[in-house]
Give the backbone structure.
Amino acid sequence: MIFLIFACSTEEAGILHPTSELYSASMISITASSYAMGYPDTEPGPYGNHWKETAQPQHTVNISAFEIDQYEVTVSDYSYFLSHLYSQHPEAARPHSHPLQPIILDEYGSFQPLEGEANRPMRYVSWYDAATFCAFRGKRLPTEAEWELVAKGSDIENPRAFPWSPDGGASCQKAVYYTNRTLCEEHPAEVGSRSPQGDTPDGVADIAGNVSEWVFDWFDTYSAEEATDPTGPSQGKYKVLRGGGFRETSDALRSTDRVAADPLSRSEGIGFRCARSLQ
């Protein structure tokens, strides 16, 4: 199932972005692990379930140690990034800014979060925006296999269907999503708002719900073969989104759910976090 999301398409003047270091610098170390990636080979049911069908066949992956951002990249983080680009040359920020982003350019040539937005996850960012931001911070987007390891865990006998624990379904106390009756929030919430109830056992926040997250890989069907540190195909048409957003149902919050999206897509429900390899 293909899910396309489209939206309408010098120094920082002494202005500080205090949350930039707080959130982007906070990372969680993930130990080298082997785990079963994907959903077990069971019948999807008479109506089908895309979160099962696109996550098969289940296969073994071996992942080297890495770090991942504890929180989704915030509007404040991204404002600092745009301000840096703008200070180099005003046109440098243009490809990574968008009128719907909750950011304004002030009279001093500094990008600032709109009121109340500083600690919310950055939205209306394409895959290319996300990858460029992560590179700016000396990081990269997590691979799809890394992301799923964080969400699911390495316990092959007791994988986590949802990131917070081996049992217990989604609720508005654990994630920001659509319950099939109501939205937990009208817009993405501040990062860490569901901590600690919605955190992974390692302490990674909001990896399910709030905003879907870009990962590194081009979308492709899974192979049944064992793989070590897979990064997906070398080229493709769609990139992968993981985790589900504030307008999506609990199916999208599952640790194995994967969505294909145009890498140029921008939406209020799309954000990202960064990762870094450990030698």
